[in-house]
Amino acid sequence: MATNQGFKSLIPEAEVLDAKYLYHWLCSKKAYLQSLGNGATFKEISKTTVARVEIPVPSIEEQRRIATVLDQADVVRARRRQSIGQLDDLPRAIFLEMFGGMTERLRFVAEVGSQEKGSIRTGPFGSQLLHSEFVDEGVAVLGIDNVVTNRFRWHGRRYVTPEKYQKLKRYTVVPGDVLITIMGTCGRCVVVPEDIPTAINTKHICAITVDRAQVLPEFLRGCFLWHPVSRRFLLQRAKGSIMDGLNMGIIKEMPMPVPPLGLQAEFVRRAHVSARAFEVATRSEREIEELFSAIQSHAFAGQL
């Protein structure tokens, strides 16, 4: 293996410095090492600067003991991350098991929207909503960042005044609406949670209010994300001259199965169980990371 100028290779003297101990120490000092970088466009740490970095060097036996403890703790972190990845993928597996083979007698998204006018809509365009009109509090405005992870998240909150909202009320999203991104990272999809305050969506989002006598919101989200026929259609149509993109017409024309509501409800139940397990595992991961950081700190302070 060879490295280019983007790397600094550290080759420890085996009798003095254990390689795994050095690795764990460097991992624990990322912020410090980054602070040593210089450069306007991107940060670079010179060989001279690296050579001056001081590393605590206990006896080689103590280094190996510390490295072993941190290796074992790292295994716990890796296993937790692996379990989270499996839980994250479980709803997809459940959906495909239940509905992946339904590829005949498909219907269009336009047919499963609510009968109310504007049940499938994008957000305000052009001068209807300018960035300069965003304020610190008021009526929330949902964008790509709230949808991009395929889980509804309150990232980068934006608001408009109540007065501005009155002019944009037709773009209101309500609990149970299905939101799909149609520009940039297009095709990401969430269901609006029940506890959402009054909000509208931007032009980068298509909102769908479904006819719940035909489909459940979580099932429609599953079709957007996982159904093979629906996904193939979106991938084929989401082509732009500059970047991939969708539009409301494409969304309305997307084919999808419409199984009995009881079967959809069973999928939703199983998906919710999986989601709760995912949340528990994610909280556990944060606790494990905090514990690992504490172990690191004690290890290199000679308190392990």
UniProtKB/TrEMBL annotation:
Alphabetically ordered keywords of this record: DNA-binding, Restriction system
GO BP annotations listed: DNA restriction-modification system
InterPro entries: Restrct_endonuc_typeI_TRD (IPR000055), Restrct_endonuc_typeI_TRD_sf (IPR044946), Type-I_RS_S_subunit (IPR052021)
UniProt domain Type I restriction modification DNA specificity: residue ranges: 2-74
Alphabetized Pfam families for the sequence: Methylase_S
Single GO term (MF): DNA binding
Family the UniProt entry places it in: Belongs to the type-I restriction system S methylase family.
Protein name: Type I restriction enzyme, S subunit
Organism from which the protein derives: Trujillonella endophytica
